[in-house]
Every structure is written in C-alpha cells, then in structure tokens.
C-alpha cells in the first residue's frame, strides 16, 4: 500500500518534468538531427532540400567555424583553471575561522545570482569606460585600456567575467566538500606534524575529488556552451575574434539564414561537449577515493 | 508532521497543474488567430447578427510588425479603428531585432499574423510565398512612384514611409559647399581637427559603421542590382571598381582624421553631435528623435549628400512595408485589407502616420507639413527626385552584420590597414557569403 503511494508521489513530480523535458529538449533535438541533412533558409513555405552529409562536410571547410572552435578551446581552458582556482581559494578562505566568513560567502556567491547578460553589460561598461579612465589617470595605459577592442584581451575579458560569475558557485560546492571531511582526520594529521601544504595535498584534495568532478564538469560544460556573456560583452567582436561555438551557430542560423548548416554545427557541437564532459567525468571519477 | 507534508505536496501539485493549465490557456489566446472567442470587453460592440450593426462586421485580424518605435501609437490607433468601424484588430508585441526570427516561427506554426511587415529587397524576397497581391486594392494606386514593394510585376507591399540618410551636419561648423569631393571633404576634416573638433563620426553598430556608408559605391553604379548579382557570382570585384576605389580613399580619410568609431555608440555619437563636439555624423532622419531629447541645440542642422564620386543625392529608401498574409482565410484577408485602406485613406489613419508614427509619407494622398529639419531634407529630396537607392537591401542576407562589420572593425582597430586592404578583404568575404 505505502509502496504504491510512494510510486504515485514519485510519478506526480516526475511526470510533468519528464513531459517538459521531452517536449522542449528531446523532440526538438531529434527534429534538429533531421534538419541537419537539409538545406533550408528557415522560411516555412520555402523548400527544404535534402543534401545528405553536405552540411557536415561544409562545416569543416568553414574557416570561421574553425576559428570559433579555437576561441572556445582557449576560453574553456582558461576558464576551467581560473574558475576552479578562485572557487577553491575562496572556499578555503571562508571555511577558516574567519569572523566575516558568512558575509564573505554571500558576497562571493552573489555574482552568480545576476544573469550572464546583465553581468556582460555591466562589465562592458567597466572595460570600455572605467578601464580607459584608470589608464588615463594612472598612466598604466598598457594594462588599463579598452580590452574589448583588442582581439586577445577581449577573450581574457570574457574569462574574467565568466570567472566572476562562476567562482562563487563552485565555491559553494567546494565548501560542502570541505565540510564533509571529518575534523578528526585533519586533527590527526596536525598531530602527526603535517604542515598546511601537506594537509592540503595529501588529505584535503584527494578527499575533495567528488567536488572536483562536479565543479570541473560544470565549468567545462558551462564554458563550452557559454553564450550570454559572449553576446552581451563582445558580440563576438572585434572582428569575430571572440566568437565562440554557440554564437557561431546562432549567427549561421539567424544571421545568414542557413538553418541546415547551423543545425549540423549544433549536432557537432553537442557531440563535442558530450565527449569532452564524459571523458572528464570518467577521469576525475577514477581519482575519487573512499573515506 | 506527516500531515503537513501531505498538505504541502497537494498544494504544490495543484499549483503545478494550475500553472500548466494557465500557460496552455494564455498561449491559446495569444497566438490563435482564427478563434474569434468574444472576450467580455468586446461583447458590447455589435455582434454580426445584430440588426443594429452599422456596416458589415469584419473578422478580427492580427498585426505583427517590426518597428518598436511605433508599437504604442499603433496600438492606440487600432483602438480608434475599433471605435470608428466596430472591427477589431489585435497588435502583437513588437520584438525589435528578433522580429524576423519570431515571424518565421509564427508562420512555421501556422499561426502567422494577417498583416505584417517586411523589409525591402532580399528580405521581402524570402517571404514572397506569403504575400497577397495588392495590385487591385484601392490604396495601392496612392503609393508614390517607384517605391511600392513589387515582386513579379505585382504590388505586394505598401511602404511604411520613406527614410533617408546622408551627412547630418552642424550648420555653424560646416558649409556644404566645402564638402563636394574627396579633396574638399578631407580638407574639411583636417580643418575641423585643427580646431579641436571631431569632423565626422560613425558609430560601432554594424549599419552605422559600414552598412549605410558602403551603400554609396553600390548605389552609384548604373544598375546596382545587376552589379550586386555580378558581385555574388564573382564576375566583378569591388577593388577593381572605380567608385569603390574612391570609397576606400574616403575611409582612409575618415580613419586618419576622426575619432575611432569603435569607441562610439549611437547614443554617444548623437550626444557629441548635439553638444557641438562633432561637426558631422553619418546618420539618417531617424536620428532626429534622439537629438530632440537634447532640447535647443543652439545651432541649425541639415542633411547633405555624402560626396563620394561627386554624389549630390541623398540615399533614400523604404525600410519596412506592410504586407497581407495571403495564406490566411479569405475573410481575414478582406479584413486586413480594409484596415490597411482605413490606415492609408482615413483622416485618423493619415494623421497617425505623419504625427504619431513620425513617418515621412510614401503616399501621394498624405500631406506632411510639420516635419523635423532632417525629415524635411529627405522629403524635399524625395519630391525632387534627388535620390539614390538603398542598394544594401539587395545584399545577401546577414552580410552587413556578419561579414562587412567585422572586417571594418579590423580596419579601424589595426593601425596599418588601408582602405584598399579593406576592399580586398570585403571582396573575399563577399565571395564566401554569397555562396
């Protein structure tokens, strides 16, 4: 009786979600696979011409697509490092017996509550106006200039904004991980004479592996498919130098009206993200240790 | 404890279901064009069967259009239409930049609007399977010569109004007689620079950076449409065409003597112009709306032609056209045409076009008396035929934003890129985009 009831409750909460997930993710995805084999300009009344794998061949000859993948790789690697280093540092900071640690947690987490679009627009102002002003006032013109007008620095600017947004989130996960480590274990290590560095590398990091798995996954997939900051901060400019995967697909579809080709890119994009994240999870999972 | 959990669960479930039902409902109402469910507020307006109905009751129609600027006035106008005629019109929210995407989505879902707007040229070409033939409608004969939206010899669209762009200049700083060709243009910029003024300002938005200004070498070709087709096929090159070569020199002069447009946005561009820091901006009559917010400028403004290859005409064209969705039902087409007729011929409608929408009329039956200075220059040029077309309407889709603008960004950002190199780059990009 009660088991049946459990199932009913289970269904009550799962079925709507399953329904939504199927209608807005699964079904469009399957339809999308179909579109990737046609040439179509997106006007419903205009013909969809079946071209087989032409779109997939064509996308590898698209210099701009290749360039955007390179941008994405650069961005992802830099973000992966920056987000996790800062997230970890912040979590270590706020788990010490600091008096302001609670306030600090809130503050560090806060950027994550602001949408990426808004963050992008705010930082656009900082990079264009504030940076320029600082550069003029302090004479450090070689560091403080409008980063968004320099191809390489515009990419760094995106990394900064993304880190700003994500570090607080990963911090929360690391905090949970750190708090899951029994105090007596650390105590024991202290008694055995392990210094801070040894405690970190020999005890805390290995026991934090589950948190690393989650955080790496989140930052890796998040950075790879990032669109909002890209759009609001640089719009892919200057001269397409910060155009990332997602934005390239968006431009292909809605800019040029190449629905088929864009869809083919999106499928490739999906595969790449899936392979990358699965590999990463598999690798980091293996490193997890049982307490 | 257990009880509270249960109650909470039930509540959540109800809320969820309510939300789903709610969504379904509002969706149905918002998008279904055919359903004529009378809402309580609309029931007093005489139903079709009522003997008191003054005229034939037409079916309710929907309008979807791209200009956010007129969204509110249009909605107010449709209320007046309902008051005057008893027919109902529903205006869907304008989406601005995402308009085309949303229009496609709605058409794809067979929930397309009855009356909508399209651009001119390649934009209209895309949607042509939807257009209803307006050639025989009474208002079509009032469209000013040569600017009706025509496809295959049929009138399919009525222009919103004409718009024009050129060099908007500060009359106290610039004398148009001194800006007649490349040499005098450059000299004017140099002189202004020496006086501590910015001679000319473009701004970083794709159309204001390159889209509009590159129109000149195209529009000055004997047949711009044929030229673009040849360019698409790779039979001609910009770098080998005289007008473009001069265009490159103009770009060099702009780069050398004015501020970097990549650091300028539309609003700062107009702000600097309004405060007298910039002497000329490359803008259209639409920019007056922004200038007006500054109040009394303290100087007079006007619009003059961009003097490329001795050009003495303003670039004038039609950005948006009204079209009727030919795939909607016959009675809806009839109702849509009736609304268009009312908009273009009734006093209320004509007044709204000029005074509420602030359009420069593209109809011979609409007078425009109180135009702002920039619109006046455009209107004068239109009437006297001193115009060159908007050739960029025939460019391949998306090329300005996706290809021309990034290349121009590079031109303005890199120190040693010349106008000639810009042209070569544009040629290469064009060859790829036109495929």
TrEMBL record, chain A:
Q: What are the transmembrane regions?
A: 12-38, 73-94, 106-126, 153-176, 203-224, 266-283
Q: Which PROSITE patterns match?
A: ABC_TM1 (PS50928)
Membrane topology designation = Multi-pass membrane protein
Q: Does the keyword Transmembrane apply?
A: yes
Matching CDD domains: TM_PBP2
Pfam families referenced in this protein's UniProt entry, alphabetically: BPD_transp_1
Location (main, coarse): membrane
**Stored PANTHER family:** ABC TRANSPORTER PERMEASE PROTEIN, INNER MEMBRANE ABC TRANSPORTER PERMEASE PROTEIN YCJO
Could you name the Gene Ontology cellular component terms for this entry?
plasma membrane
Look up the record and give one Gene Ontology term from the biological process aspect: transmembrane transport
Source organism of the structure: Cohnella herbarum
Give the family per the record.
Belongs to the binding-protein-dependent transport system permease family.
> Transport: present as a keyword of the record?
yes
UniProt keyword terms in alphabetical order: Cell membrane, Membrane, Transmembrane, Transmembrane helix, Transport
| The protein's name | Sugar ABC transporter permease
Write out the annotated subcellular location.
Answer: Cell membrane
Where is the ABC transmembrane type-1 domain positioned along the sequence?
69-280
UniProtKB/TrEMBL annotation, chain B:
Q: Note whether Cell membrane occurs among the keywords.
A: no
The biological processes this protein is annotated with in GO are: maltodextrin transmembrane transport; maltose transport
So which residues are the signal peptide here? 1-18
Q: List every stretch annotated Disordered.
A: 29-52
The entry lists its GO molecular-function terms as:
maltose binding
Q: Which Pfam families would you find in this protein's record?
A: SBP_bac_8
GO cellular component, as recorded? ATP-binding cassette (ABC) transporter complex, substrate-binding subunit-containing
- Would the keyword Signal be found if you checked this record's keyword annotation? yes
Q: Which UniProt keywords apply?
A: Signal, Transport
| Similarity comment | Belongs to the bacterial solute-binding protein 1 family.
Q: Which PANTHER family match?
A: MALTOSE-BINDING PERIPLASMIC PROTEIN (PTHR30061), MALTOSE_MALTODEXTRIN-BINDING PERIPLASMIC PROTEIN (PTHR30061:SF50)
The protein depicted here goes by the name Carbohydrate ABC transporter substrate-binding protein
């Amino acid at each position: 009786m009660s088991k049946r009831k459990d199932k009913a409750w289970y269904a009550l909460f799962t079925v709507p979600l399953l329904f939504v997930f199927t209608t807005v993710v699964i079904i469009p995805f399957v339809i999308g696979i179909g579109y990737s084999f046609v040439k179509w300009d997106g006007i419903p009344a205009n013909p969809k011409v079946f071209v087989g794998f032409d779109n997939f061949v064509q996308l590898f000859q698209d210099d701009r697509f290749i360039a955007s993948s390179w941008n994405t790789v650069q961005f992802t690697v830099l973000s992966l490092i920056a987000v996790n280093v800062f997230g970890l540092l912040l979590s270590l900071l706020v788990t010490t017996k600091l008096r302001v640690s609670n306030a600090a947690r809130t503050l560090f987490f806060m950027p994550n509550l602001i949408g990426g679009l808004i963050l992008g627009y705010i930082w656009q102002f900082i990079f264009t106006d504030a940076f320029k002003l600082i550069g003029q006032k302090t004479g450090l013109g070689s560091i403080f200039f409008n980063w968004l007008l320099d191809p390489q620095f515009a990419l760094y600017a995106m990394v900064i904004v993304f880190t700003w947004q994500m570090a607080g989130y990963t911090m929360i996960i690391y905090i949970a991980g750190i708090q899951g480590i029994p105090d007596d274990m650390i105590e024991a290590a202290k008694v055995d004479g392990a210094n801070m560095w040894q405690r970190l590398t020999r005890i805390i990091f290995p026991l934090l592996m589950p948190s690393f798995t989650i955080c790496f996954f989140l930052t890796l997939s998040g950075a790879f498919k990032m669109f909002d900051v890209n759009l609001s901060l640089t719009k892919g400019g200057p001269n397409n130098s910060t155009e990332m995967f997602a934005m390239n697909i968006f431009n292909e579809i809605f800019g040029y009206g190449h629905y088929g080709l864009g869809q083919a890119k999106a499928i490739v994009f999906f595969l790449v993200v899936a392979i990358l994240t699965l590999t990463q999870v598999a690798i980091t999972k293996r490193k997890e240790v049982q307490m | 404890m257990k009880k509270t959990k249960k109650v909470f669960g039930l509540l959540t479930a109800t809320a969820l279901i309510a939300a789903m039902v709610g969504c379904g409902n509002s969706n149905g109402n918002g998008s279904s064009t055919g359903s004529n469910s009378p809402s309580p507020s609309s029931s007093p307006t005489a139903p079709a069967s009522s003997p008191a109905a003054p005229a034939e009751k037409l079916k309710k129609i929907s309008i979807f259009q791209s200009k956010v600027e007129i969204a509110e006035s249009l909605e107010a106008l449709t209320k007046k239409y309902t008051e005057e005629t008893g027919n109902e019109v529903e205006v869907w929210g304008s989406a601005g930049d995402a308009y085309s995407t949303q229009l496609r989505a709605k058409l794809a879902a067979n929930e397309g609007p009855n009356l909508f707007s399209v651009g001119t040229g390649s934009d209209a070409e895309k949607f042509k399977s939807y257009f209803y033939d307006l050639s025989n409608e009474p208002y079509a004969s009032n469209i000013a010569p040569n600017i009706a939206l025509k496809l295959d010899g049929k009138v399919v669209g009525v222009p919103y109004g004409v718009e024009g762009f050129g060099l908007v200049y500060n009359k106290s700083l610039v004398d148009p007689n001194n800006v007649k060709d490349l040499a005098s243009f450059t000299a004017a910029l140099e002189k202004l620079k020496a006086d501590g003024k910015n001679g000319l300002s473009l701004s970083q938005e794709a159309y204001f950076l390159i889209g509009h200004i590159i129109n000149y070498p195209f529009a000055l070709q004997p047949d711009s449409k044929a030229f673009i087709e040849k360019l698409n096929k790779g039979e001609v090159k910009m770098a080998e065409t005289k007008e473009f070569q001069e265009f490159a020199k103009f770009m060099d002069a702009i780069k050398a003597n004015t501020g970097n447009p990549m650091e300028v946005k539309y609003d700062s561009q107009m702000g600097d112009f309004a405060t007298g820091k910039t002497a000329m901006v490359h803008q259209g009559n639409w920019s007056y709306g922004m200038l007006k917010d500054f109040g009394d400028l303290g100087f007079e403004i006007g619009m003059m032609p961009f003097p490329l290859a001795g050009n003495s005409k303003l670039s004038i064209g039609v950005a948006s056209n009204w079209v009727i969705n030919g795939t909607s039902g016959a009675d809806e087409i009839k109702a849509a045409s009736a609304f268009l007729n009312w908009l273009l011929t009734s006093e209320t409608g004509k007044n709204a076009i000029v005074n509420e929408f602030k359009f420069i009329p593209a109809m011979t039956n609409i007078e425009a008396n109180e135009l702002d200075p920039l619109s006046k220059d455009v209107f004068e040029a239109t009437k006297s035929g001193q115009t060159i077309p908007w050739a960029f309407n025939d460019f391949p889709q998306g090329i300005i934003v996706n290809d021309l603008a990034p290349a121009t960004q590079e031109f303005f950002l890199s120190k040693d890129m010349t106008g000639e190199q810009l042209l070569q780059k544009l040629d290469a990009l064009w060859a790829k985009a036109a495929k």
